[in-house]
Amino acid sequence: MLYQLLGQTGLRVSELFLGAMTFHGRDRDDTAHKEYARIVETYAQAGGNVIDTAVNYGEGESEEILGELLQKDRDRFVLSTKYTLYRDASDPNASGNHRKNLKLSLETSLRRLRTDYIDLYWVHIWDRNTPLEETMRALDDVVRSGKVLYLGISDTPAWVVARANTLAQQHGWTPFSAIQVPYNLLNRDIERELLPMAEATGLSVAGWGPLASGALSGKYTRPNGRPTGRTRMSAQDLSPRDRAVAEAVAEVADELGATSSQVAIAWTRARSTAVHPIVGVRTVDQLTDNLDATGVSLSAEQLARLEAPTGFSRGFPLDFIDSTAQWVYGTVGPRVVPRSR
């Protein structure tokens, strides 16, 4: 496992993040709890150090389970959790990105996780009803208090992230160091605005759903196939396009002697070094398979074959800008060396 710096900070984070959304304690027995422990141990032994959860995952049980499992080696992990989603559906102030929900959500997470600080604290989703100024100032306060070390934001438009970090820069507040977004061969939307914004401004990208809810795991393209990650899909959920992409993934996997899951995860890393796929698993076998994606290398020709059936277009204005380059810059345009970022 290699490590990269989180955004424009000095924090070292592993290539792959471990998602703990699947860690549910309500219906777990002793066997299931031991499997959670083995998952964390296997991930750590492979060099992984970022574990991602949220205040509402499993109605709080994901954080509680992690709190139990990480007691002895808590400081070796980059512990990542989120706030925004409701803690009490009947309380209008028990959700959102305002100061009150931030304070109470953070205290709840610290208690459940049995720690006195969060390494990476995420705004879970954009809250249109809370001014960005309030959110960024409140987040800066919890960083200055020592209860949070670094900040990220999930599921938010690129312009909102850029404006938030501009406010932070203007006021000397702590900026976001990372964004968390869905990213896989079936959902490439972030390539239009969010990924270019992150690359241009030096933000890390935590990509959730790299297997597209199991569609890219090989479950639907192989006899007796089984998913190697968290899945909520059935064969009937796949469109002709989904099947075409899944088949392309399977073909490349066969060429490389890899699994479909490994190729799908490797593709997200090949598209941008800023991307850290979040792998969410239920068993150690699934995790081991996903971790081996770090050893999969895709050629330019294989990347093109994987992307062809997606039918993805960046749309206006990016495609328009590219198509009018000669009209704008003339024949000398291609000889201008781009500015390095």
Automatic annotation (TrEMBL):
Residues 16-308 form the NADP-dependent oxidoreductase domain. CDD domains: AKR_AKR9A_9B (cd19080). Residues 221-232 have a biased composition (Low complexity). Pfam families: Aldo_ket_red. Signal peptide: none annotated. Keywords: Oxidoreductase. Residues 218-239 are annotated as: Disordered. This is Aldo/keto reductase.
